[in-house]
């Protein structure tokens, strides 16, 4: 599945983020705690330079806490960034962000009137919700679908901190194909821009392997089927997702599965672990190396092919003919 969802406003938003970056003292990248790797924007990592960066793992209430702890350790030790888990149901916890901003910018705070903090993140991850929590009032528009915030908004917290809310952005080329499915499964992509069935099958395959007990209980299955198709068929029968004639409605059950995953009804689920991602990175590097080797092989084959004895023979004859012709011309002069 490829993702064709990089609407015009995101292009503009990414450009604006880059442009206002030099007025910003600290970047707060809001990640989805269920997919900290897939929701991290490589463009932001590239442009941020050595500006302090705080990674907030939001929607922690929906993520698997053990896996989130693994991600925090990974991000802090390997990437040297400060992390914090947040969720909209725990405002007191989110307010720690203010302290973290102050301590990361302590030197700067002494010399300027206010600290500028920019909040970035993928669509629908909860940036505006978080800003409302920090501002203690509804100041930024929120909603359960991607692309609610359409332009940058400056919010003065009134305590020496100014926040910039930004529209959610994805990036034009998502390298890891698994990330596309996980972003879609988590709700970062508009429903109209994705194939429910593809994403549903991907999620089903992952869920029966990673969370077999949760799936068995949620769909009241005696035995958990070992393929995603068999699981979706069994779940569809249990939920009455059937078409006329009693055939299973796979589209409907994929929709149900994704809705329940996104709303947390399936339980606290993370869609990727540091170990999974490390393996995928090796696979991606191998695939890239194979592509280069295949290209070199094709090029060599083409070169060799053009030097078959018959071709060589014809080439020599052509050269001889040309030389003879040029000799005749010179003699004729
Ligand atoms: N379960 C859960 N839902 C959350 C959390 N934070 C935000 N939400 C919900 O996620 C949805 C998106 O929130 P927004 O704050 O509008 O997200 P955003 O990142 O500003 O989205 P865009 O402006 O579209 O990029 C809303 O329905 C929020 O109620 C959280 O911690 N847990
Ligand atoms: Mg928003």
From TrEMBL:
GO terms for molecular function: GTP binding; GTPase activity. It comes from the Bacteria. Residues 294-333 are annotated as: Disordered. One of its GO terms (cellular component) is cytoplasm. Residues 310-326 have a biased composition (Basic and acidic residues). The keyword GTP-binding applies. PROSITE patterns: G_CP (PS51721). It is found in: Cytoplasm. Residues 11-172 form the CP-type G domain. Keywords: Cytoplasm, GTP-binding, Nucleotide-binding. Pfam families: MMR_HSR1. GTP binds at residues 58-61, 124-129, 168. One of its GO terms (biological process) is translation. Required for a late step of 50S ribosomal subunit assembly. Has GTPase activity. Belongs to the TRAFAC class YlqF/YawG GTPase family. MTG1 subfamily. PANTHER family: MITOCHONDRIAL RIBOSOME-ASSOCIATED GTPASE 1. This is Ribosome biogenesis GTPase A.
């Amino acid at each position: 599945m490829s993702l064709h969802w990089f609407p015009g406003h995101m292009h503009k938003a990414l450009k604006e983020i880059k442009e206002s970056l030099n007025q910003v003292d600290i970047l707060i990248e809001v990640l989805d705690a269920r997919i900290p790797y897939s929701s991290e924007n490589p463009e932001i990592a590239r442009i941020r330079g050595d500006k302090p960066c705080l990674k907030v793992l939001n929607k922690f209430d929906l993520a698997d806490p053990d896996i989130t702890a693994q991600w925090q350790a990974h991000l802090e030790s390997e990437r040297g960034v400060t992390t914090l888990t947040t969720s909209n149901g725990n405002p007191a916890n989110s307010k720690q962000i203010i302290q973290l901003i102050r301590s990361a910018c302590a030197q700067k705070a002494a010399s300027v009137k206010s600290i500028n903090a920019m909040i970035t993140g993928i669509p629908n991850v909860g940036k505006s919700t978080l800003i409302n929590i920090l501002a203690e009032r509804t100041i930024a528009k929120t909603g359960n679908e991607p692309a609610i915030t359409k332009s940058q908004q400056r919010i003065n917290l009134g305590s020496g901190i100014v926040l910039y809310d930004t529209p959610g952005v994805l990036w034009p080329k998502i390298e890891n194909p698994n990330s596309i499915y996980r972003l879609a499964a988590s709700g970062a992509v508009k429903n109209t821009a994705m194939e429910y069935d593809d994403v549903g099958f991907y999620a089903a395959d992952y869920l029966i392997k990673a969370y077999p007990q949760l799936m068995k209980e949620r769909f009241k299955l005696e035995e958990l089927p070992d393929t995603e198709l068999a699981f979706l068929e069994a779940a569809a029968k249990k939920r009455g997702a059937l078409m006329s004639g009693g055939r299973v409605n796979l589209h409907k059950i994929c929709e149900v599965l994704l809705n329940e995953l996104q709303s947390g009804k399936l339980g606290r689920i993370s869609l990727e672990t540091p170990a999974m991602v490390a393996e995928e990175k090796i696979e991606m590097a191998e695939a890239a190396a194979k592509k280069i080797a295949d290209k070199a092989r094709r090029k060599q084959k083409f070169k060799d092919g053009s030097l078959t004895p018959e071709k060589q023979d014809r080439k020599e004859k052509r050269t001889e003919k040309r030389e003879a012709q040029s000799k005749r011309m010179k003699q004729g002069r």
